Amino acid sequence: MALIKSGGKDTPSVILVARYESSRRAAASQLVDEYKKGAAKPLSTSRVDTVEPDSGRISISTIRSLYQTTSYRRAGGQFQLVIVHEAQTMTIPAQNAFLKLLEEPPSGVRFILTCPHPQALIPTIRSRCQLVYLPPLPMAEFKASFNQLDDDAQNRLFYLSGGDTIEAARLLKDGQLEQTYAAVRQLITEPLGQGVISLQTLAPDRDQARQVADKLARLAHAGLRHSSKSDKNRWLKRLNSTLEAQEQLAQNANVKLVMDGLLLEFRA
Fold first, then answer.
1. For residue 164, which of 34, 21, 2, 33 has the smallest C-alpha distance?
2. Which domains does the chain show, CATH number per domain?
3. pLDDT digits (tens, 9 = 90+) for 35-50
């Protein structure tokens, strides 16, 4: 299903809002494809730039560099996309500098912002972009969207994706459903450092650790929504732990210490 109603030069700049970082990134990739289909020239003759947080934030100097990045002349029909990942990490001065780009965007330039909470952005940025929310689906509606799978596979897909159809489609497309399910199950049931799939294998660096924490957050959220009343406190603690771990990883905390603590909470 299309994220927005139109593509190409008539499409406004967009803020993609989703609970999980991997969902936001997958949606940004999907939106790039939608722009491509709506463009007069193929994407290969156009340009896609990305902005990423550095040490947990996007500075004003990073945003000011976009002034030059977006200033070059584009041939007729070409366009430029600028994806600002984790836009909520822009400092206030950076947001004010970015607002100038939104107020007078260079011809053929569109911006895609991703964030978990649009309230973290100043109102004038929000008012100049189309907000696209990507909420998780209830279990019954989610399973109906993947009725080609048997019930066990639907359940596994739901818990790993947190009810997010974009992430679910990515797991199926990449053939990662069973492998990811086995890895997560082993990770939260076996003693630290044991088993074929160890923490060092799944999360050898910060980026991989953030992905593992993201998957555990989905698992915890789905568990909280569908657990019995007696288990809800346990799943709530797990969810809070994943959110804390994600924040710590974004702030350059020690990867091993953060992930060991997170996994201990899941095994409690």
1. 21
2. 8-133 (3.40.50.300), 139-267 (no CATH)
3. 777 654 444 456 889 9
